[in-house]
Amino acid sequence: MALSKPIYNLLGIYFEKLYTNPVLTKSLTAATLSLGANYIAQRISGDDLDYNSLVAYGAFGLVFGGTCPHYFYSFIEKVTKNMKNRKMMQFLMQRFMYTPIFTVISLYFLSLFEGATPDQAQRKMLALYKKVLTANWTYLTIPVYVNFKYVHPMMRVLVTNLIGVFWTIYLAQKRKAAAKKRSSSSEKNEF
After folding, report:
1. For 71, left (φ over 0), alpha (ψ -120 to 50), or beta?
2. Which of 71, 90, 72 is nearest to 80 (CA)?
3. CB 88: neighbour CB atoms within 10 A?
4. Which of 33, 82, 91, 120 could form a disulfide with 116 if both were Cys (CB 3.0 to 4.6 A apart)?
5. Rounded to the nearest 10 degrees, how much is the dihedral formed by the CA atoms of 34, 36, 41, 42?
6. Which residues, 6+ apart, have CB-to-CB distance to 166 below 8 Å?
7. Residue 115: which region, alpha, beta or left (left: phi > 0; alpha: psi -120 to 50)?
8. How far is CA 69 from the centre of its chain?
């Protein structure tokens, strides 16, 4: 029981900040979770730690990971307010409006934050977009549905970011595999 009081205190502080300053709280949470997920992905891969990638994922979470879902979820709460199948409409809007756009943003800006030029980031994004979007629709549809069906709107961004931890690990692995493939094909072209 002694451990539960500090946890309850932290949760109380988190919920208070979520209520008083939702965008900053969600952004800081997203940054922390994105950075942590990238760290885990790097540890799993067994390579040396890439600090540029850690900073890129943390920055992406800070800039986009809290703000984009916050404003999108607020928007769909208002738009679907009087709809009959409200949660289903919100779910469909998330899957078919938000996800394709956020996938572009993710792939492009993560590359930029890791040091790619805008042209390189665009090429990387175009190379991965269809595969990543298809994988997102394949693997994340059920967790996203559960999020809309059972989670209070105030907590959806947090749950989205927790789902995003696993997604970030997957995405980091996919991007790394694509980079290795590009590197090995460019080495073959040198000979």
Report:
1. alpha
2. 90
3. 14
4. 120
5. 120
6. 37
7. left
8. 9
* Residue 65 in tokens: 């990971």
Q: Nearest Cα to 76, choosing from 85, 66, 86, 84?
A: 86
Give me the phi and psi of 171, to 5 degrees please: -65, -40
pLDDT for 85-114, tens place per residue?
Answer: 999 999 999 999 999 999 999 999 999 999
CA 95 to chain CA mean position, Å? 14
Measure CA 19 to chain center.
22
Which residues have a Cβ under 8 Å from the Cβ of 189 and sit 6 or more positions away? none
Token representation of residue 93: 């809007």
For 45, residues 6+ apart whose C-beta sits below 8 A from its C-beta are 173, 176
pTM of this prediction exceeds 0.70? yes
The model's pLDDT over 7-46, given as tens digits with 9 standing for 90+, comes to 888 888 999 999 999 999 999 999 999 999 999 988 887 7
